[in-house]
Amino acid sequence: MTGTTARDYIVFGSPALGEEEMAEVVACLRSGWIGTGPRVARFEADFANYKGVAAAQVAAVNSCTAALHIAMTAAGLDPGAEVITTPLTFCATVNAILHAGLTPVLADVDPATQCIDPAAIEAAITPRTQAILPVHFAGRPCEMDAIMAIAHRHGLAVIEDCAHAIETEYKGRKAGTFGDFGCFSFYVTKNVVTGEGGMILGRALERIARARILALHGMSKDAWHRFSDKGYRHYQVVECGFKYNMTDLQAALGIHQLARVEANWLRRKEIWSTYQQAFAELPVERPAEPAGDTRHAYHLYTLRIDPRRCGIERDVFLQRMHEAGIGTGVHYLSIPEHPYYRQRFGWRPEQWPNAMQIGRETVSLPLSAKLGSTDIARIARTVTEVLA
Ligand SMILES: *Cc1c(COP(=O)(O)O)cnc(C)c1O
Fold it and tell me: 126, 135, 193, 245: which could join 161 in a potential S-S bond, CB 3.0 to 4.6 Å?
């Protein structure tokens, strides 16, 4: 399509930031405290409140990758223990398992929900399995009843990757509160944005306390508590930790993003429904409707471009959308499509055929709460034209 200027390009995953965020960042700068301090403490308290847990059960960090790494370290698993996860996820899920000195084992997804299939988890269990790492894909909850039953039967830890799932609920219970830990992302494309950022939610207070220490060098007191107006206090290093703390500049964004989390969720739900209706007659597979008694976070809206039905390859579809000034995403090429994992573990994509097929056909359309109805109508029209 001609005539598209850079100004009307719809960027995929562009965050909805408001004046409150901007003012808070400026106030943070003027306060002179831009490191980890009072705004992080407030963001943690607000997040805990949103999730309905105690403030002592959460710890803010600088990414979800960091949250996953620390959660798996604080879960106290044996070195090299196997962790079962999904092949349809961002590389960070698997990398964090490796950073924690553990062994990733993949279990295929359900083709309709695109979440890890409990039967595949069961089939992947060995005497070395010690944890399950489900990803609430696109914001749709995994089958937590089945997953928790497997975990209890085999004595496994559960660490939920909630990067897509801040607003997700399963049978009235919030994502991230089922397992030993839930890990959240505030990366620029996620539902709550701090630029870079993450949160660990832990069930056991002593484990989340350890996670907090691991996130700041293994020190027993953070800088805010060392240098505040209460006077200098000594700290002690109690183990070899990491540098994963969130800063007040990031929390300044997060506080106001979180205040708008439900309004933004409602807007994405509307967009999601508009897409579902607009594409009902097209030869594409749309996402399954959310299951009863669950709450979908509507993080991604994905279509499957099966070339036999659509007469067009997925990558050609991506190119046509780009030419029409619309950014898209792919969530995700399955993990074994990447050379590193193939070489290190000898994995072939065909071993997890559902994830492989989805990864080769899927496309994510823009779903930012910032998009207006004209943008959404233009995206829907372009998809229809490209597939006509
Ligand atoms: C974004 C994402 C992560 C990593 O989050 P960061 O905050 O960027 O580290 C992990 N898992 C999934 C499923 C994600 O989408």
Answer: 135
